[in-house]
Amino acid sequence: MTRAPRPRDLGIAPGILPPGPSNSLTDVPGVRVGHLTLDQHDAELPVRTGATVVVPAPGSLFREKPAAGLEVVNGFGKAAGLSQIAELGVLETPLALTNTLGVGSAFEGLVRHALDGHPEIGTTTGTVNPVVFECNDGWLNDIRGLHVRPDHVLDALKAASDGPVQEGAVGAGTGMVAFGWKAGIGSSSRLVDADGGTGFTVGALVLANFGLADDLTVLGIPVGRTLTPQQSGEQAEFARGAGSCVVLIATDAPADARQLRRIAKRATVGLARTGGIVQHGSGEYALAWSTTHRIPHRPSGPVRPASALAENGPLIDLFFRAAAEATEEAVLGSLFAARPVTGVRGHHAPALPADRIAHLVHHPASRAPRSTPEHPTYTS
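Above: the chain sequence. Below: its structure as C-alpha cells.
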C-alpha cells in the first residue's frame, strides 16, 4: 500500500525546531510502538477499532520506573492508572490506547504482561499500575460489541517496534474522527540543542478524536472555514459533544516528574493551534516521561540521587516549544494519513484532501470565506 503524504511532504512544517530522523515518537531512543487493528467491514455491525501500545523505555519498567508527569486538560474520560502517576510521578508498565469500552480488556492485557515478566508482583512486593487511555470510536465502530480483548494488547506488544510509527486509521485510531475527517494515530518529534553541544529529543504520539469541522486550522490558516467534510445532521450533533485526544510525549532528557508535567501541559498549545477548544464532552490528556530518569522499585538506601533539567528559562522553553510543535504536527499527521472509513449504521468519515489543504495554505488568494450557499463546501 502506498504511504499517504505526511504534512512535510506537502510543505506543511509546523514550528521552527527540526524533527528527528523519522519524525516520530520512536526517535526517542528506547521507545517502541505497536498496533493491533480490528477492521471487519463485512460484519453485520462493522468493527473499526483496535489497540495501540507504547513501550516507554527499555528494560523492566516495573523495576526501573521512568519518571512521568500527567496533565488532565479536561477529565471527561475513562482512563485507568492516572491517579498513581499524579501521586508518584512514575510509570511501571507499557501504555495502552484503545476505545472507551475496551479499557478493562486493555488493563487486563497489561497486567498479564507485567505478571509474566515479574514473579515478585503480588507475592514479595505490591501489585502493578497499568495505564490505559481511551477515546470513543462509537461513530464508526460497533463499540457495544466489546471487540478489544486482552490478547489483542499482548499482540500489539509483540509487534512493538522502534521504527517509524504507522499513522492514521490503525490500531486504536481505526475508528477515530477529528474535525469531521477520518483521523486516528499521528506522531512527530523535535530535536532540542542544549548549551554545550548536548542534544535531546522530544517525541509525541496522539490519538486524535476531537474538534469541530469549522475549527480545523493548519499553520494558522482556518482551512475548516473553506473546506469542510460532508456531514449528516446526526454526525454534526455527535461531534458537538463527543471526542477526546490523548497526547503521549517522550524525551531522553533527564527531567523530573514536576518538569515533565510542565512539558505535558504544553501539548495544549499544539492542540489549540490545530483548532481544538477542549469541548465539554471531550477528554484531553497529556502524559510526558523521561527514558533516562528512572526510579528504582527497591531503593538502595534512604536517599536516592535525582536529576533534573536546569530551569533557567531558555532551555526549558525549548522543551515547551518542542512539545507544542510535535503535538501540532502529530495531529495533522493523523489526518493526512487516514483513509476514508464507513462504519456502523452507514456512518462515514471521509479522508482529508491533503492536496487541497496544501493549496489553501500556500495560496492565500484561494481561500474562501466561511461556507455559504454562494460558497458551497467541499464534499467527499
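The CA atoms of residues 66 and 294 lie 4 Å apart.
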